[in-house]
Amino acid sequence: xxxxxxxxxxxxxxxxxxxxxxxxxxxxxxxxxxxxxxxxxxxxxxxxxxxxxxxxxxxxxxxxxxxxxxxxxxxxxxxxxxxxxxxxxxxxxxxxxxxxxxxxxxxxxxxxxxxxxxxxxxxxxxxxxxxxxxxxxxxxxxxxxxxxxxxxxxxxxxxxxxxxxxxxxxxxxxxxxxxxxxxxxxxxxxxxxxxxxxxxxxxxxxxxxxxxxxxxxxxxxxxxxxxxxxxxxxxxxxxxxxxxxxxxxxxxxxxxxxxxxxxxxxxxxxxxxxxxxxxxxxxxxxxxxxxxxxxxxxxxxxxxxxxxxxxxxxxxxxxxxxxxxxxxxxxxxxxxxxxxxxxxxxxxxxxxxxxxxxxxxxxxxxxxxxxxxxxxxx
Length: 378
Hints:
25% helix, three-stranded mixed beta sheet, elongated, alpha+beta, Helix Hairpins, 26% strand, 15 strands
């Protein structure tokens, strides 16, 4: 083909239909004769319009890619019948300049309200088992004086005298295409098609007022810090009595003095003296349910973990619970009187531990050392 339509629009040969359309709109804004009236620009505008007519039509584009004449089948486009042909993308030119060529009509005063977000602080027991809260929200509600209409009692919106209720005004412009009629929102009524002559004194014509209301909310078991709970229709009422938006609850879990949460599992630390670790003992551990006795086996080492299954947080939207991990920390006495020291020396002698050789193991390496080794391997 003599014309390279892809080069004309500045797109790749594998460009999508959306990319072709965007490229044409951009060029149409720059080259439209109403913007640049010189003859060269007008000719260039015809070229991009013809290219777009072909590349925006799947059948014509396929014929063009195969080297055939896309207008040979009798289609009356820019290449066959000029800009008055049936294939001329008139609506795309209007869309490029005015957003749309179609008539919109009056728009409703009622619009959906905005969403609202509220932070809710909960303690660990509340997030683990769920709870019910009554929350106070400062939000917009429908005006009771005008029932959301925005008009003073006994009055109604009146038809706009400028657009006669259509919500838009039309304007005729001359171009090389002939007379082009465009539509835009009516500046007198803002596109509503009507005006409020007597606004409500309570809401000043907005149809809503701000107030504080109380919402009873059920928090499900298993929620954790940062989770958002959506309550549909509990947000702000929209202008003009429009439907309300949604309310989002952002969960903030307060720190617990004993437990640290990791997912649905809980972790805590119990400290026992060296003698109790060696001989074994029993300790009482506070759980989320109640105090519970835990046996410490003889010979327990510092760092060992005792697991209480099913004593953690309930799984969100599932059955079952996480676990409670009890980390044992063995305390070594720091100060000994003479009698205690003598007893420990006798014990060390009996166990042959007066001069222990010590057991060595590879230490934990820092992050920077591991990163350095990774680079040294390459």
